[in-house]
Amino acid sequence: MGAIILENLGPISAQVISFLIFYWLLKRFAWGPVMVLLEERRKRIKGEYDKVSALQKQMEELKTDYEKRIGAIEAEARERVQEGVKEGRRVAEEIAEKARAEARERVEKSKQMIDLEMIKARKELREQIVDIAMKTSELAVRERLDRTKHDELVGRFIDELNAKN
Fold it and tell me: Up-side HSE of residue 164: CA atoms within 13 Å toward CB?
């Protein structure tokens, strides 16, 4: 086994030396630029990732702000609806109160008109009764009253009353 290693020592040494020279050349001329390119790419990817993270954070903030605004708008809308309902109820109550006041006023005016008409009717009735009594007295004075005449005058008096009513 020792003899096989000695025989192959020359080509193995040449391969090791060639590999070391190749490694040194790669490290000197290729490894640096490749590493620089990889580092630039890593930085660019990290920058893009940071931008995406920043945009995602900004989107979350905008979403939160949007949800707050929507909530505020909905609350304001509910408040306005409630104010509208309250205003509607207030107006309805005002209208109902005005209607009740007008009805009371009309009832009061009607009562006053009825009272005036009653007074007027009583006055007319009194005048008619006085007229009839005067006419009856006048007739009684003009004619002598006996029982038949008296019954006849009372009958005419009742007929005149019925005719006027």
Answer: 14
